[in-house]
Each structure stands twice: as structure tokens, then as C-alpha cells.
Amino acid sequence: MPARPASSTRHPGRPVRREIKPGLSPSADARPVPRFLASAPMRPHLPYALAAVFVIVVQALSLTEFVPVPVALLIGAGWAALVCLAARAIRRRPVTGARAEAILIGSGITTMALFAFGGAIGLLMLNTALESPSITGETMIRMFLPSIPIAIAANVPTELVIIPALLILGWRPGRRRLLIVLAAALYFVLRIWTYLVFAHDRLDFATAERSTTPLTAAERTQFEAGLHLNDPRWALNLLIFMALLLAAFARPTPTRPETGQATDVTTDGAASTVEAVSTTKPGPGSAFGHRKVS
Fold first, then answer.
1. 102 is in which domain, residue-wise?
2. What is the β-pairing status of strands 14-19 and 8-11?
């Protein structure tokens, strides 16, 4: 009688073989991928299309004030191609991709917290200062100007890298993908709203910052409109912040369709291969024939 191959059994008569992809550590709570998730279509080109549309539209709106529209669209398309190619290269490396995704989510949470909470506090402070009967134009401008470089430093990486790259790196079935897409859609609306409504309505700071006399009623109205002191966008920033915060704690479904291997992203950002379960049944010419169960 042929010798029975050494293998661990979970059920009598059904040997189980564990296959771990070289270079990846198995997760402690690894589990087989449900069949309906493994066979679901992933539409691999959709995240690249969404990221490209996001970058082209936002950058076109941002640059049309400085360059013609065709040039702005061309610049946006070029940057979109660079982001897509870089994200695709990172996505091919599961461990690096998981870590990059975690870093991008953390960066997005930081910038949105700055806009949501910092923006709300800034508006409250400026509105309170404007109610003072002795406030001058110079004081108002000096209070407002520090927020401009902070907003630029936070918005530029968010709209150029964080959101479009997250759409690609986070495109796996599960709750995290839904939250990332929600955050990207809200931020897309926010940037379009900003460029179409707020960007062209600017106060003449050069004249106001030299005013050392108390503001008149007309000047207060002008400051309130020019500085957008009733700006409701902080609430939208808060929704984006909450979506990204929830995404940070949501684990993506452990599948990797491009290789057919199930993967699991652990809480520390490392990707590990889920055990591939194989059952054996007798076959002709051998004691056991192997049949893999996906």
C-alpha cells in the first residue's frame, strides 16, 4: 500500500495543504476568501479613469486663471498620467502598496482635520473680531493672511497626489473602498465649488491692509463678503475627514484578483498571503490526487 503523504487534516479523510507565497508572512487571522468575492468583477481600469478625471478637471479649473484652457487641460492630463503610472507601479508590490495607502489615508485625515476644525475656528475668530467697534482693516488682514500658505500647503498635495493615488491603491472590494470613493467625491465637489464660486471673489488686500481707522459698516460688509466669513465649506471638510477616518479603521477585503492569490492587509499595513486550502481525493495511478479549491 503506498505511503500516505504527510499533511495536516482538519476533517478525517480530507488532507489540507497550506501554500504560502514566498516573501510574504501569513496573517494570524488569515481566512479563505469567499467564492462570491473571488469571482466578482473588479473593473481594473475604473480607478485609473476616476483618478484621471479628478486630476484633469481640478487642475484645469485651478490653472485657467494663469494659462489658456487647452494648456491647462494638457497639464492636467500629463500629471494624471504620472500619478496613474506611479500608483500602478506601487500597487504591484502588495506590502509597499499597503503601506503607501496607509500613509496617504493618514495624510488625508491630517489635511482634512486642518480644514474642518482649523477652518471653523478661524471663521469664528474673524467673525468675533469683526464685531469689535475698534477693529481696523490692517488688523483683519493680519489675522487672515497666515491662513493662506497653510491652505495652499494642505490643498496642493491633497488634490495632486493624496486623493487620486488613494482611488487607485485603495481600489479593493470592501468598506474601505466605498469610504475612499465617498471622500474623493466630496473633495471633488469641494474643489469645483471653491474654484467656481470662491476663487474669483477676492478682497483688495493692498488697500485694506493700510487702513488704520476703525471699519465703517460698509467696510465690515465688504470684509464679511471678501473673506467669506459665512463660508459653509468647513462642514464639507468635516464630512471628508470623517470618511477618511473611518477608512483608516476599515479593513479591505483580502483579495488580489490580478494574481488569483488571496491577500490580507493587517493593521500595521503589511500584506500577507491567506492560506490556500487544497483538498485531496483519490485518483488513478496515485494514492492521492490534488484538487485546489479557490
1. 43-253
2. antiparallel
